[in-house]
Write a structure and sequence with these properties.
With 616 residues, this protein is of the alpha/beta class. It has 3 domains: 241 residues, Aminohydrolase, N-terminal nucleophile (Ntn) domain (Glutamine Phosphoribosylpyrophosphate, subunit 1, domain 1, 4-Layer Sandwich); 194 residues, Rossmann fold (3-Layer(aba) Sandwich); 159 residues, Rossmann fold, CATH 3.40.50. It contains 19 helices and 26 strands. Helix 3 crosses helix 4, helix 4 packs across helix 5 and helix 7 runs parallel beside helix 13. The protein starts with a strand and ends in an 18-residue tail after the last helix. The model has no long low-confidence stretch (mean pLDDT 92). It binds 5-amino-5-deoxy-1-O-phosphono-D-mannitol. 5-amino-5-deoxy-1-O-phosphono-D-mannitol binds next to helix 9.
Length: 616
């Protein structure tokens, strides 16, 4: 989704802006642009559909120096991907330039008013409307210097409905960038002789580790040697400087050809990190004291509702099943976008868990706010402890997966599953789970990293299976119980990066309609753990084979019946039922990855997708 990087410096800024845009590429975009103010006072704007490299190639070869600039990667919402719809956008005077993440809901009304006042527009975007609106107030303002820009933003934004993170410059203010946010993230980077604004802290890493995560309605004015933060709202702005705790190579692929493959291979480490110091062997439980939720408040919970989108939703569905089976607490899941639309009732003792890798997904944030409004206790499960979600929830369980750059969620998903296993353990031990069962779960959790390693070692044989079935026109993914959500996740992964139509189903639903899809060109991926449902899963394979459907079976212990029926078998280590979802996820990720590779897809930047969906 859209990305912003802006900088005011004592040095040339174009290379910094282009490099920053490259750090934002993983978020998904279709065009890129920048506006710089040259030291001779000329406002230069360049915008290009396609990759950042196309923008770079379009820039003049020996341009005049520029120490101030704003830049942007755009993921189209209002208006198709094109040079003219790319950001930055200028106001009517052509002297004010603005980049924007988010959506302006009342852009049509605002545009009509501006058209009536004689404004002309060059794009179909809501952002250009915003630029004109700010420019209109700038021209009418009696203030001078930076105050003129902050005042005009304050006045313009008072009539704007929607979400924004934005950075604005004006030709008459050679050192100054003004940035503000509402509902979309914006981070201020404190560099040496320079200050920066970015929508994503990772883009600031090459320049500084000292950052300020701006709050909603903060408005900041930055120059190379100074910054100030005020509020657009009635309160005084409060902020603190954080140290970015990211490895310098966090955003590099290392020796892997794709971020996705690197992140799949980082999963043993991610799981170890998420378990570290959270396993309580003495009490056969999990240390969740860092949540800040007292055992008493957790004990009072009589219902858990889990909310998320995409993979985070499927992690939540698995988590609900884990919590129900371990803690005997009613738990269910809701699509975040549905939760915010449906006005769901919440009891007095509900715990609402919002799951989100980024912590910035618009639907998930809106659902959290709705749950808080209704008085529920809220817990965020996120990879980003400084995200809006973490800051607004009553408590946060950090995933500790490390930065995830690939658009397809991989290590964040298994970290969400392991976080849910810990939560189920802790909630279970607060209720009826016996000590020995708690210890059994702890021991099984501790084995996961090496078990995942052993599945990763099968990457080559999974690649061969993927190559065999890569020309399929569709794929089905079937699982039962705890593995039904994993079938959904397997299908999502496959369609996201290979563009093969894939659908996940509860295996019990096969006979109720899905079976019509079975034919020799549609492989079914069957999740068959060696548990009490094994004979039912073997029955499902029989039904598929009877209709000449190819079967890829994922199973643990050798089973002669599965071996003779299935066209391909992927064997994974045995574990407790509760942890089967984690181990079954790994071969599904590899299957999707190798299928996409065989088809020559752009794995880290799949078409139309954005890493975090920060707009409605
Ligand atoms: O950042 P979030 O976890 O809130 O993102 C939720 C979904 O947008 C995300 O999981 C999406 O489905 C991924 N592309 C899945 O690979």
């Amino acid at each position: 989704m859209c990305g912003i990087i802006a900088c005011t410096s004592t040095q040339e800024v174009r290379p910094l802006l282009l490099n920053g845009l490259r750090h934002l590429e993983y978020r998904g975009y279709d065009s890129a642009g920048l506006a710089v103010l040259t030291t001779s006072g000329h406002l230069e704007v360049h915008k290009k559909i396609g990759r950042v490299d196309s923008l770079a190639a379009h820039l003049p070869s020996s341009p005049p120096p520029a120490h101030l600039g704003i830049s942007h990667t755009r993921w189209a919402t209002h208006g198709e991907p094109s040079d003219s719809n790319a950001h930055p956008h200028l106001d009517q005077s052509g002297l004010l330039a603005l980049v924007h993440n988010g959506t302006i809901e009342n852009h049509a009304d605002l545009k009509s008013q501006l058209l009536a006042a004689g404004h002309h527009f060059l794009s179909e975007t809501d952002t250009e409307v915003l630029a004109h609106l700010v420019g209109q107030h700038y021209d009418a303002s009696s203030a001078s210097g930076p105050d003129r820009l902050t005042d005009s933003l304050r006045l313009a934004l008072a009539s704007v409905k929607g979400t924004f993170a934005l950075a604005v410059i004006h030709r008459d203010l050679p050192d100054i960038i003004v940035g503000t946010r509402r509902g979309s993230p914006l981070v201020l980077g404190l560099g040496r002789n320079q200050h920066l604004l970015a929508s994503d802290a990772a883009a600031l890493l090459p320049h500084t580790r000292k950052v300020i995560f701006l709050n909603d309605l903060d408005i900041t004015t930055i120059s190379p040697d100074n910054f100030s933060i005020a509020s657009l709202g009635p309160h005084t702005a409060s902020w603190h400087i954080s140290d970015l705790d990211l490895a310098p190579d966090a955003a590099s692929r290392g020796h892997f050809p794709h971020f996705m493959l690197k992140e799949i291979h980082e999963q043993p480490l991610a799981i170890s990190r998420s378990l570290h110091r959270r396993l309580d062997h003495d009490n056969a439980s999990a240390h969740l004291d860092q949540l800040g939720l007292s055992p008493a408040s957790l004990h009072h919970i009589d219902r858990v509702r889990i909310i998320g989108c995409g993979s985070a939703l499927y992690a939540g569905m698995t988590g609900a099943r884990m919590i129900e089976s371990t803690a005997f607490l009613p738990a269910d899941t809701e699509i975040a976008g549905e939760f915010r639309s449906l006005n769901r009732p919440l009891g007095n003792h509900s715990l609402v868990i919002t799951v989100s890798q980024s912590g910035e997904t618009a639907d998930s944030l809106a659902a959290l706010r709705e749950a808080r409004r209704k008085g529920a206790l809220t817990l965020a499960l996120t990879n980003h402890p400084s995200s809006s979600l973490a800051r607004e929830a009553d408590a946060t369980l950090e995933l500790l997966a490390g930065p995830e750059i690939g658009v397809a969620a991989t290590k964040s998903f298994v970290s969400q599953l392991s976080a849910f296993a810990l939560l189920a353990l802790a909630l279970g031990r607060l209720r009826h789970l016996p000590h020995h069962s708690g210890l059994e779960l702890i021991h099984a959790l501790e084995q996961l990293p090496s078990q995942i390693d052993s599945i990763l070692a099968q990457s080559h044989s999974i690649a061969a299976i993927a190559a065999r079935f890569a020309s399929s026109h569709g794929m089905l993914f079937l699982g039962r119980g705890l593995l039904f959500p994993i079938a959904l996740e397997g299908a999502l992964k496959m369609k996201e990066i290979s563009y093969i139509h894939a659908a996940g189903f509860a295996a019990s639903e096969l006979k109720h309609g899905v079976i019509a899809l079975i034919d020799p060109h549609t492989p079914s991926v069957c999740l068959c753990p060696d548990d009490s449902l094994l004979s039912k899963n073997i029955g499902t394979i029989h039904e598929i084979k009877a209709r000449r459907g190819p079967v890829i079976a994922i199973t643990s212990n050798p089973n002669p019946e599965i071996d003779s029926l299935a066209d391909a078998v992927i064997r994974i280590p045995a574990t407790l039922d509760l942890l089967q979802p984690i181990l079954h996820t790994i071969p599904l990720q590899l299957l999707a990855y190798h299928t996409a590779l065989a088809l020559g897809r752009d794995i880290d930047k799949p078409r139309n997708l954005a890493k975090s969906v920060t707009v409605d």
